[in-house]
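DM from R.C. (forwarded with permission)

"hey, sorry to bug you on a friday — could you get me a structure for this? deadline for the figure draft is monday and I only need the backbone to look sensible"
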Amino acid sequence: MPAYYIWTIGCQMNRAESERLEARLARNGYTPSRRTEDADVIVLNSCVVRKHAEDKVVNKLYNLKTLKRDRPDLRIALTGCFVGPDTEELRKRFPYVDYFFKPGEIPDWLAVEQGCAAVPEQPGITAFVPIIQGCDNFCSYCIVPYRRGREKSRPLSEIVCEVRELARRGTREVTLVGQNVDSYGHDLAGKPDLAELLTELNKVEGIARLRFLTNHPKDMSRRLIEAMARLDKVCQQINLPVQAGDNAVLEAMHRGYTVEQYRGLVSELRSRMPDIALTTDVIVGFPGETEVQFRNTYSLLSELKFDAVHAAAYSPRPGTLAAKKYADDVPAAVKKAWLDAIEKLQEGIAGEINAALPGQTLEVLVEGKNKGKWQGRTRSDKLVFFIGGADLTGRLALVHIEKASPWSLQGSFQKSKEE
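My reply, with the result:
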Protein backbone atom coordinates (compact mmCIF):
# COMPACT_ATOMS: atom_id res chain seq x y z
CA MET A 1 0.00 0.00 0.00
CA PRO A 2 1.25 3.55 -0.69
CA ALA A 3 2.41 5.52 2.35
CA TYR A 4 2.03 9.15 3.40
CA TYR A 5 3.92 11.47 5.74
CA ILE A 6 2.40 14.71 7.07
CA TRP A 7 4.55 17.38 8.73
CA THR A 8 2.62 20.03 10.66
CA ILE A 9 3.71 23.28 12.26
CA GLY A 10 1.65 26.11 13.73
CA CYS A 11 -1.73 26.50 15.34
CA GLN A 12 -4.43 24.05 16.38
CA MET A 13 -6.25 24.84 13.14
CA ASN A 14 -3.33 23.37 11.21
CA ARG A 15 -3.36 20.30 13.45
CA ALA A 16 -7.08 19.85 12.83
CA GLU A 17 -6.65 20.19 9.07
CA SER A 18 -3.77 17.69 9.08
CA GLU A 19 -5.98 15.19 10.90
CA ARG A 20 -8.63 15.64 8.21
CA LEU A 21 -6.04 15.14 5.46
CA GLU A 22 -4.88 11.96 7.19
CA ALA A 23 -8.43 10.68 7.18
CA ARG A 24 -8.80 11.43 3.46
CA LEU A 25 -5.50 9.72 2.65
CA ALA A 26 -6.49 6.65 4.68
CA ARG A 27 -9.78 6.41 2.80
CA ASN A 28 -7.83 6.50 -0.45
CA GLY A 29 -5.70 3.52 0.51
CA TYR A 30 -2.65 5.20 2.08
CA THR A 31 -0.94 4.11 5.29
CA PRO A 32 1.05 6.44 7.59
CA SER A 33 4.83 6.47 7.49
CA ARG A 34 7.15 7.60 10.29
CA ARG A 35 9.86 8.77 7.88
CA THR A 36 9.83 10.97 4.79
CA GLU A 37 12.18 8.49 3.11
CA ASP A 38 9.52 5.76 3.20
CA ALA A 39 6.59 7.89 2.01
CA ASP A 40 5.01 8.04 -1.43
CA VAL A 41 3.23 11.29 -0.59
CA ILE A 42 4.62 14.02 1.68
CA VAL A 43 2.38 16.87 2.86
CA LEU A 44 3.82 19.93 4.60
CA ASN A 45 1.22 21.91 6.54
CA SER A 46 2.87 25.28 7.01
CA CYS A 47 2.75 28.38 9.21
CA VAL A 48 4.02 31.90 8.55
CA VAL A 49 2.55 33.74 11.52
CA ARG A 50 6.12 34.44 12.68
CA LYS A 51 9.42 34.44 10.80
CA HIS A 52 10.79 31.64 12.94
CA ALA A 53 8.00 29.33 11.78
CA GLU A 54 8.40 30.42 8.15
CA ASP A 55 12.13 29.66 8.28
CA LYS A 56 11.37 26.14 9.51
CA VAL A 57 9.02 25.58 6.57
CA VAL A 58 11.58 26.81 4.04
CA ASN A 59 14.29 24.58 5.53
CA LYS A 60 11.96 21.59 5.40
CA LEU A 61 11.16 22.29 1.75
CA TYR A 62 14.82 22.56 0.80
CA ASN A 63 15.59 19.32 2.65
CA LEU A 64 13.06 17.51 0.45
CA LYS A 65 14.71 18.68 -2.78
CA THR A 66 17.34 15.90 -2.72
CA LEU A 67 14.73 13.29 -1.83
CA LYS A 68 12.64 14.34 -4.84
CA ARG A 69 15.69 14.24 -7.12
CA ASP A 70 16.47 10.66 -6.06
CA ARG A 71 12.82 9.59 -6.21
CA PRO A 72 11.04 11.42 -9.06
CA ASP A 73 7.78 9.51 -8.41
CA LEU A 74 7.53 10.98 -4.90
CA ARG A 75 4.68 13.49 -4.62
CA ILE A 76 5.18 16.55 -2.43
CA ALA A 77 2.33 18.85 -1.40
CA LEU A 78 2.43 22.19 0.42
CA THR A 79 -0.53 23.67 2.27
CA GLY A 80 -1.11 25.96 5.25
CA CYS A 81 -0.56 29.69 5.51
CA PHE A 82 2.64 29.60 3.43
CA VAL A 83 0.30 29.20 0.44
CA GLY A 84 -1.47 32.38 -0.61
CA PRO A 85 -4.06 32.99 -3.33
CA ASP A 86 -1.35 33.27 -6.01
CA THR A 87 1.00 30.27 -6.13
CA GLU A 88 3.02 31.28 -9.20
CA GLU A 89 5.98 32.60 -7.16
CA LEU A 90 5.96 29.47 -4.99
CA ARG A 91 6.04 27.25 -8.07
CA LYS A 92 9.09 29.11 -9.36
CA ARG A 93 10.84 28.96 -5.99
CA PHE A 94 10.05 25.29 -5.30
CA PRO A 95 9.58 23.64 -8.73
CA TYR A 96 9.96 20.15 -7.25
CA VAL A 97 6.76 20.56 -5.20
CA ASP A 98 3.87 18.88 -7.04
CA TYR A 99 0.85 20.43 -5.35
CA PHE A 100 0.06 23.74 -3.66
CA PHE A 101 -3.32 24.16 -1.99
CA LYS A 102 -4.67 26.80 0.35
CA PRO A 103 -5.24 26.04 4.04
CA GLY A 104 -8.45 24.16 4.67
CA GLU A 105 -8.80 22.98 1.07
CA ILE A 106 -8.81 19.37 -0.11
CA PRO A 107 -6.52 18.72 -3.13
CA ASP A 108 -8.01 17.38 -6.34
CA TRP A 109 -6.05 14.14 -6.11
CA LEU A 110 -7.94 13.17 -2.97
CA ALA A 111 -11.56 12.17 -3.45
CA VAL A 112 -13.74 14.86 -1.91
CA GLU A 113 -16.15 13.43 0.63
CA GLN A 114 -18.62 15.44 2.63
CA GLY A 115 -19.61 15.71 6.28
CA CYS A 116 -18.48 12.94 8.60
CA ALA A 117 -16.22 11.36 5.97
CA ALA A 118 -13.30 13.44 7.30
CA VAL A 119 -13.24 11.61 10.65
CA PRO A 120 -10.22 9.31 11.16
CA GLU A 121 -10.88 5.60 11.60
CA GLN A 122 -9.16 5.72 15.00
CA PRO A 123 -9.33 9.27 16.33
CA GLY A 124 -7.60 10.31 19.53
CA ILE A 125 -9.10 10.71 22.98
CA THR A 126 -9.13 14.43 22.18
CA ALA A 127 -9.79 15.93 18.76
CA PHE A 128 -9.83 19.33 17.06
CA VAL A 129 -12.82 20.16 14.86
CA PRO A 130 -12.68 23.22 12.57
CA ILE A 131 -15.88 25.26 12.62
CA ILE A 132 -14.92 28.46 10.79
CA GLN A 133 -12.23 29.30 8.26
CA GLY A 134 -10.56 32.68 7.78
CA CYS A 135 -10.82 35.98 9.64
CA ASP A 136 -12.45 39.37 9.00
CA ASN A 137 -10.62 41.34 11.70
CA PHE A 138 -7.36 42.24 9.90
CA CYS A 139 -5.22 42.96 12.94
CA SER A 140 -2.36 45.04 11.59
CA TYR A 141 0.35 42.48 12.44
CA CYS A 142 -1.45 39.35 11.22
CA ILE A 143 -1.01 37.60 7.86
CA VAL A 144 -3.81 35.06 8.41
CA PRO A 145 -6.69 36.93 6.66
CA TYR A 146 -4.52 37.33 3.56
CA ARG A 147 -3.75 33.60 3.44
CA ARG A 148 -6.94 32.01 4.75
CA GLY A 149 -9.37 34.57 3.40
CA ARG A 150 -12.57 35.97 4.87
CA GLU A 151 -14.67 34.14 7.43
CA LYS A 152 -16.61 31.11 6.22
CA SER A 153 -18.51 28.96 8.72
CA ARG A 154 -19.24 25.27 8.38
CA PRO A 155 -22.93 24.29 8.60
CA LEU A 156 -24.01 23.48 12.15
CA SER A 157 -25.50 20.12 11.14
CA GLU A 158 -22.22 19.07 9.49
CA ILE A 159 -20.24 19.85 12.65
CA VAL A 160 -22.72 17.96 14.86
CA CYS A 161 -22.51 14.99 12.49
CA GLU A 162 -18.72 14.98 12.69
CA VAL A 163 -18.65 15.20 16.49
CA ARG A 164 -21.17 12.36 16.77
CA GLU A 165 -18.97 10.20 14.59
CA LEU A 166 -15.87 11.10 16.60
CA ALA A 167 -17.72 10.10 19.76
CA ARG A 168 -18.79 6.81 18.19
CA ARG A 169 -15.14 6.04 17.44
CA GLY A 170 -13.88 6.84 20.94
CA THR A 171 -13.17 10.58 21.19
CA ARG A 172 -14.08 12.01 24.60
CA GLU A 173 -13.07 15.68 24.28
CA VAL A 174 -13.57 18.00 21.30
CA THR A 175 -12.01 21.42 20.81
CA LEU A 176 -13.76 23.61 18.25
CA VAL A 177 -11.19 25.66 16.36
CA GLY A 178 -11.04 28.63 14.03
CA GLN A 179 -9.14 31.87 13.65
CA ASN A 180 -12.06 33.55 15.41
CA VAL A 181 -14.62 31.09 16.75
CA ASP A 182 -16.65 33.91 18.32
CA SER A 183 -17.75 34.94 14.80
CA TYR A 184 -19.12 31.49 14.01
CA GLY A 185 -22.39 31.40 12.08
CA HIS A 186 -22.82 35.06 11.09
CA ASP A 187 -22.49 34.06 7.41
CA LEU A 188 -24.90 31.10 7.56
CA ALA A 189 -28.63 31.02 6.92
CA GLY A 190 -30.47 31.63 10.18
CA LYS A 191 -27.24 32.95 11.74
CA PRO A 192 -26.62 30.24 14.36
CA ASP A 193 -23.92 31.35 16.80
CA LEU A 194 -21.29 29.57 18.86
CA ALA A 195 -23.64 29.39 21.87
CA GLU A 196 -26.20 27.50 19.77
CA LEU A 197 -23.54 25.16 18.38
CA LEU A 198 -22.26 24.36 21.87
CA THR A 199 -25.83 23.71 23.04
CA GLU A 200 -26.31 21.12 20.28
CA LEU A 201 -22.92 19.48 20.85
CA ASN A 202 -23.61 19.29 24.60
CA LYS A 203 -26.27 16.69 23.74
CA VAL A 204 -23.87 14.33 21.93
CA GLU A 205 -23.56 11.05 23.83
CA GLY A 206 -20.01 9.90 24.52
CA ILE A 207 -18.49 13.37 24.45
CA ALA A 208 -17.41 14.35 27.98
CA ARG A 209 -15.88 17.77 27.35
CA LEU A 210 -16.10 20.67 24.91
CA ARG A 211 -13.61 23.51 24.42
CA PHE A 212 -13.17 26.22 21.79
CA LEU A 213 -10.51 28.60 20.48
CA THR A 214 -9.29 31.07 19.30
CA ASN A 215 -11.42 33.88 20.76
CA HIS A 216 -11.41 37.60 19.99
CA PRO A 217 -12.29 39.88 22.92
CA LYS A 218 -14.35 42.27 20.80
CA ASP A 219 -16.54 39.46 19.44
CA MET A 220 -17.29 37.46 22.59
CA SER A 221 -21.00 37.76 23.33
CA ARG A 222 -22.94 37.61 26.59
CA ARG A 223 -24.91 34.72 25.05
CA LEU A 224 -21.69 32.74 24.74
CA ILE A 225 -20.69 33.49 28.33
CA GLU A 226 -24.09 32.32 29.54
CA ALA A 227 -23.80 29.12 27.47
CA MET A 228 -20.40 28.41 29.00
CA ALA A 229 -21.80 28.82 32.49
CA ARG A 230 -24.88 26.70 31.76
CA LEU A 231 -23.67 23.73 29.70
CA ASP A 232 -22.19 20.92 31.77
CA LYS A 233 -19.81 19.59 29.10
CA VAL A 234 -18.31 22.96 28.20
CA CYS A 235 -15.08 23.42 30.14
CA GLN A 236 -14.89 26.70 31.99
CA GLN A 237 -11.48 27.42 30.52
CA ILE A 238 -10.76 29.88 27.75
CA ASN A 239 -7.92 31.53 25.87
CA LEU A 240 -8.62 35.25 25.48
CA PRO A 241 -5.73 36.98 23.68
CA VAL A 242 -5.09 40.51 24.95
CA GLN A 243 -1.90 41.05 22.86
CA ALA A 244 -1.02 44.30 24.68
CA GLY A 245 -1.93 46.16 27.85
CA ASP A 246 -1.60 49.66 26.41
CA ASN A 247 -4.38 51.42 24.51
CA ALA A 248 -2.09 53.14 22.00
CA VAL A 249 -0.47 49.82 21.10
CA LEU A 250 -3.87 48.10 20.85
CA GLU A 251 -5.06 50.84 18.49
CA ALA A 252 -1.97 50.45 16.30
CA MET A 253 -2.61 46.70 16.28
CA HIS A 254 -6.23 47.32 15.13
CA ARG A 255 -7.54 45.07 17.89
CA GLY A 256 -10.86 46.89 18.26
CA TYR A 257 -11.04 47.15 22.06
CA THR A 258 -9.42 49.06 24.90
CA VAL A 259 -7.66 47.81 28.00
CA GLU A 260 -10.69 48.92 30.03
CA GLN A 261 -13.05 46.91 27.83
CA TYR A 262 -10.83 43.84 28.06
CA ARG A 263 -10.63 44.16 31.85
CA GLY A 264 -14.43 44.41 31.97
CA LEU A 265 -14.81 41.24 29.89
CA VAL A 266 -12.49 39.33 32.21
CA SER A 267 -14.48 40.62 35.18
CA GLU A 268 -17.74 39.45 33.61
CA LEU A 269 -16.33 35.99 32.87
CA ARG A 270 -15.05 35.58 36.43
CA SER A 271 -18.23 36.93 37.93
CA ARG A 272 -20.33 34.42 36.00
CA MET A 273 -17.84 31.54 36.43
CA PRO A 274 -15.69 32.12 39.55
CA ASP A 275 -13.50 29.07 38.89
CA ILE A 276 -12.84 29.80 35.20
CA ALA A 277 -9.26 29.28 34.02
CA LEU A 278 -8.07 32.07 31.73
CA THR A 279 -5.05 32.13 29.44
CA THR A 280 -3.93 34.87 27.09
CA ASP A 281 -1.52 35.78 24.27
CA VAL A 282 0.84 38.76 24.26
CA ILE A 283 3.04 40.32 21.59
CA VAL A 284 6.03 42.32 22.80
CA GLY A 285 8.11 44.74 20.77
CA PHE A 286 5.38 45.97 18.44
CA PRO A 287 6.71 48.85 16.30
CA GLY A 288 7.08 52.01 18.36
CA GLU A 289 6.39 50.26 21.68
CA THR A 290 8.09 52.06 24.56
CA GLU A 291 9.30 50.85 27.92
CA VAL A 292 6.32 52.59 29.54
CA GLN A 293 3.89 50.84 27.19
CA PHE A 294 5.49 47.47 27.87
CA ARG A 295 5.20 48.16 31.60
CA ASN A 296 1.47 48.74 31.09
CA THR A 297 1.22 45.25 29.61
CA TYR A 298 3.30 43.81 32.43
CA SER A 299 1.07 45.52 35.00
CA LEU A 300 -2.11 44.18 33.37
CA LEU A 301 -0.75 40.63 33.47
CA SER A 302 0.22 41.12 37.12
CA GLU A 303 -3.28 42.37 37.91
CA LEU A 304 -5.39 39.82 36.04
CA LYS A 305 -3.27 36.75 36.94
CA PHE A 306 -3.79 34.35 34.05
CA ASP A 307 -3.30 30.61 34.35
CA ALA A 308 -0.94 30.78 31.37
CA VAL A 309 0.49 33.48 29.12
CA HIS A 310 1.75 32.74 25.61
CA ALA A 311 4.19 35.55 24.83
CA ALA A 312 6.01 36.15 21.54
CA ALA A 313 8.19 38.86 20.07
CA TYR A 314 6.73 40.91 17.21
CA SER A 315 7.83 39.63 13.81
CA PRO A 316 7.01 41.74 10.71
CA ARG A 317 4.98 39.81 8.15
CA PRO A 318 5.30 41.05 4.56
CA GLY A 319 1.94 42.19 3.22
CA THR A 320 0.44 43.18 6.56
CA LEU A 321 -0.49 46.76 7.41
CA ALA A 322 2.05 46.92 10.24
CA ALA A 323 4.88 45.81 7.96
CA LYS A 324 3.90 48.42 5.37
CA LYS A 325 3.32 51.25 7.82
CA TYR A 326 5.86 50.80 10.60
CA ALA A 327 9.56 50.08 10.96
CA ASP A 328 10.49 47.13 13.17
CA ASP A 329 12.27 49.51 15.49
CA VAL A 330 12.36 47.72 18.84
CA PRO A 331 15.80 46.08 19.19
CA ALA A 332 15.90 42.28 19.40
CA ALA A 333 17.72 42.48 22.76
CA VAL A 334 14.90 44.61 24.19
CA LYS A 335 12.27 42.19 22.90
CA LYS A 336 14.11 39.31 24.54
CA ALA A 337 14.41 41.16 27.85
CA TRP A 338 10.67 41.90 27.79
CA LEU A 339 9.86 38.26 26.98
CA ASP A 340 12.08 37.09 29.82
CA ALA A 341 10.36 39.49 32.23
CA ILE A 342 6.90 38.18 31.27
CA GLU A 343 7.99 34.56 31.52
CA LYS A 344 9.45 35.13 34.99
CA LEU A 345 6.30 36.96 36.09
CA GLN A 346 4.03 34.23 34.75
CA GLU A 347 6.03 31.44 36.34
CA GLY A 348 5.36 33.05 39.72
CA ILE A 349 1.67 33.59 39.00
CA ALA A 350 1.12 30.05 37.70
CA GLY A 351 2.98 28.66 40.69
CA GLU A 352 0.76 30.68 43.02
CA ILE A 353 -2.44 29.49 41.31
CA ASN A 354 -1.39 25.84 41.26
CA ALA A 355 -0.15 25.94 44.87
CA ALA A 356 -3.79 26.05 45.98
CA LEU A 357 -4.55 22.68 44.35
CA PRO A 358 -2.70 20.06 46.48
CA GLY A 359 -5.24 18.38 48.75
CA GLN A 360 -8.05 18.72 46.19
CA THR A 361 -9.54 15.89 44.11
CA LEU A 362 -9.86 16.85 40.45
CA GLU A 363 -11.47 15.28 37.40
CA VAL A 364 -8.83 14.23 34.85
CA LEU A 365 -9.46 12.98 31.32
CA VAL A 366 -6.78 10.31 30.90
CA GLU A 367 -4.93 10.50 27.57
CA GLY A 368 -2.47 7.65 28.16
CA LYS A 369 0.76 6.76 29.96
CA ASN A 370 4.01 8.70 30.10
CA LYS A 371 7.09 7.14 31.73
CA GLY A 372 5.02 4.80 33.86
CA LYS A 373 2.49 7.40 35.03
CA TRP A 374 -0.96 8.18 33.73
CA GLN A 375 -1.20 11.54 31.99
CA GLY A 376 -4.25 13.71 31.43
CA ARG A 377 -5.76 17.15 31.86
CA THR A 378 -8.26 18.73 34.21
CA ARG A 379 -11.30 20.65 33.03
CA SER A 380 -9.18 23.78 33.53
CA ASP A 381 -6.62 22.27 31.11
CA LYS A 382 -3.92 21.66 33.71
CA LEU A 383 -1.54 18.79 32.98
CA VAL A 384 -1.67 16.02 35.59
CA PHE A 385 0.56 12.98 36.12
CA PHE A 386 -0.64 10.32 38.55
CA ILE A 387 -0.17 6.73 39.67
CA GLY A 388 -2.67 3.96 40.33
CA GLY A 389 -5.58 2.44 38.49
CA ALA A 390 -5.66 0.21 35.39
CA ASP A 391 -7.02 0.58 31.85
CA LEU A 392 -7.78 4.26 32.33
CA THR A 393 -7.10 5.61 28.83
CA GLY A 394 -10.09 7.64 27.72
CA ARG A 395 -11.70 7.53 31.16
CA LEU A 396 -12.60 10.35 33.52
CA ALA A 397 -10.56 9.74 36.66
CA LEU A 398 -10.81 11.42 40.03
CA VAL A 399 -7.25 12.23 41.10
CA HIS A 400 -6.05 13.42 44.50
CA ILE A 401 -3.51 16.20 43.87
CA GLU A 402 -0.40 15.88 46.04
CA LYS A 403 2.21 18.16 44.43
CA ALA A 404 2.11 21.21 42.17
CA SER A 405 4.54 23.16 40.03
CA PRO A 406 3.82 26.11 37.71
CA TRP A 407 3.56 23.72 34.76
CA SER A 408 1.99 20.48 36.00
CA LEU A 409 0.39 18.60 38.88
CA GLN A 410 1.22 15.24 40.51
CA GLY A 411 -1.26 12.99 42.25
CA SER A 412 -2.75 9.57 42.88
CA PHE A 413 -5.78 7.80 41.46
CA GLN A 414 -8.90 7.71 43.64
CA LYS A 415 -11.56 6.18 41.42
CA SER A 416 -13.09 6.36 37.99
CA LYS A 417 -15.82 8.97 37.77
CA GLU A 418 -17.74 6.75 35.35
CA GLU A 419 -18.05 3.70 37.59
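R.C.: lifesaver. The mean pLDDT is 94.
me: no worries. The longest strand covers residues 361-370.
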